[in-house]
Amino acid sequence: xxxxxxxxxxxxxxxxxxxxxxxxxxxxxxxxxxxxxxxxxxxxxxxxxxxxxxxxxxxxxxxxxxxxxxxxxxxxxxxxxxxxxxxxxxxxxxxxxxxxxxxxxxxxxxxxxxxxxxxxxxxxxxxxxxxxxxxxxxxxxxxxxxxxxxxxxxxxxxxxxxxxxxxxxxxxxxxxxxxxxxxxxxxxxxxxxxxxxxxxxxxxxxxxxxxxxxxxxxxxxxxxx
Length: 225
Prior knowledge:
Strand content: 15-25%
Structural class: alpha+beta
Strand order of the largest sheet: 5-8-7-6-9
Oligomer: single chain
Distance between the termini: 15 Å
Number of strands: 9
Radius of gyration: 19 Å
């Protein structure tokens, strides 16, 4: 389960340890086991006057709010059980306007990641998607079909864009590409350990749009936009 300390820092539990993502400072981090225990005790009973929270205060980890924050972050996410890239689809030609949009959005996203911090990028993406789409659609079957078709077009054209492929670049780009077409999907950021790795993918309900079910399930979500 994803939990939020404030608008910038979210965390999850994996194999008995806590992993944190700070989108303001573009970093993943962990705490010592002693600080983990202090944080969990504080979250369980924040009014405990005898709690030792000095280390948490020093690291700015005392939560100001339990809300998801102002960047559109979500906490509820269905367990992935289907993948658009693992479904059979006819080998259709990707329309030129889609290829153009994919090239432009990938180039823009890579530039943003080079010159801006993650927090304003995520905020802008959330605002753009929410202005162009609605997560409440009556005909979910039709929406899933359109999402899958658009995602397949993106996945097929993406390797031809002369920019290095990256899960974060590609997932940010896909969410924006889909939103331009009125299709609502979530960016999911997850972590795995032994060894530690971070990953990002795009998901709508239990349907993963640019990753396999196995890879998505191998990572524990730490933030959902």
